[in-house]
Amino acid sequence: MFFRPLIEGAAEDRAALTAEYRASKKVGKIHLGSTQLFYRSGLRIYYIPFRLIRRCFRRVHLVSIPMDGKKREIPVEYLVVCDDRGELFEAQIPGKEAARTLMDELKRLIPDAAFGKPPAALSSAEEA
Fold first, then answer.
1. CB within 8 A of 61, min separation 6: which ones?
2. Edge to edge, what strands does the sheet with 2-5 contain?
3. Domain residue limits at 80
4. pLDDT the model gives residue 121
5. In 25-120, which ranges are E strands?
6. pLDDT by 10s per residue, the chain, length 128
7. Does residue 127 fall inside a structural domain?
8. Looking at the domain assignment, is residue 89 inside a domain?
9. What's 6's domain CATH number?
10. In this structure, are residues 104 and 115 in contact, taking their beta carbons and an 8 Å threshold?
11. pLDDT at 80
12. Predicted local distance difference test score (pLDDT) of residue 43
């Protein structure tokens, strides 16, 4: 497996990462280990220790699809993970229930992190 840290200072033992990844709880492309959050993208598996995550929130994109000769919009859930500098990544989550379960599990695993959109994102969305 090709493990890549999302931010510097997150280097770990590859054997320990492999063992934790295999024992992790999977929600879509996100895997929750005992000390790391893993995100699979293609053949690479990105990881970040829970201690470096400062904020998590859900983002919903509306995706247009043709259905019955009309364009319909369906909501697609994403998890956004941030550190001190800003957003690190956005990963698609398979549905609203999975998103709720994932957020509840993250709140349990990372009690020191903030949950919900950052204040800057809220004010810029209000201006648009």
1. 75, 76, 78
2. 2-5, 44-49, 36-41, 30-32, 25-27
3. 2-117
4. 52
5. 25-27, 30-32, 36-41, 44-49, 55-67, 70-83, 86-93, 114-115
6. 688 877 776 667 888 898 999 999 998 889 999 999 999 888 889 999 998 899 999 999 998 988 888 888 988 999 999 988 888 889 999 888 999 999 999 999 999 999 988 776 544 444 44
7. no
8. yes
9. 2.30.29
10. no
11. 92
12. 87
- The whole-number pLDDT of residue 120 equals 64
Kindly state the DSSP code that residue 109 receives in the 8-state scheme. H
Structure tokens, 119: 């204040």
CA 24 – CA 114 distance, rounded (Å):
22
Count of domains observed in the chain: 1
Distance of CA 69 to the CA centre of its chain: 34
Q: Provide the token pair at 98.
A: 């999975």
CA distance linking residue 109 with residue 36, whole number of Å: 10
- Is 52 within a domain? yes
The rounded Cα 54 to chain-centroid distance in angstroms is: 12
